[in-house]
Write a structure and sequence with these properties.
Blueprint lengths: L1 E6 L15 E6 L2 E5 L6 H8 L9 E3 L5 H4 L10 E4 L22 H7 L1 E4 L4 E4 L2 E3 L10
């Protein structure tokens, strides 16, 4: 398995751009996967600089429905599988700023653009690769 950071909150490679959020490119056996897409198209631009073709992605795993992990979905041109929790499209608002903090694409748009799989339960994408499903909060804040 090979994991390449396409975007995170810090710039580790001076040749790449970064922004708040996360996007990881994962290669395992013959599959190409993304974990999250960040806020914008930075993950895609960084992939191009690293000679990674985002259109070859087989599957995208969405960790949760916040803008900084999901808004880059707008910049996917192919139609890969998207695996996510069914509540990813729920309305989200920042407690601090009261601004919208959810995804920019609607559930209907996701259905039209991707092969959508929604599950709260663990989902085996392929041998040794799982989407964990819902991880319940165990704190009181």
């Amino acid at each position: 398995m090979k994991i390449t950071v396409l975007n995170d909150n810090r710039r580790y490679n001076p040749l790449l751009s970064n922004e708040h959020g996360l996007s990881l490119y994962i290669e395992y056996k013959d599959k190409k996967m993304l974990l999250d897409t960040g806020v914008s198209d930075i993950f895609k631009r960084n992939a191009e600089k690293l000679n990674i073709n985002i259109n070859d992605i087989n599957v995208i795993f969405l960790s949760h429905g916040h803008y900084d992990h999901a808004n880059g979905l707008e910049y996917i041109d192919s139609h890969p599988t998207l695996i996510m929790h069914p509540d990813c499209c729920n309305y989200r608002q920042s407690k601090r700023t009261k601004t919208y903090g959810g995804m920019s694409l609607t559930h209907e748009e996701l259905q039209n653009r991707f092969q959508l799989i929604e599950t709260k339960e663990p989902y085996e994408y392929m041998n040794n690769v799982y989407f964990l499903g819902e991880i319940k909060r165990s704190n009181n804040f």
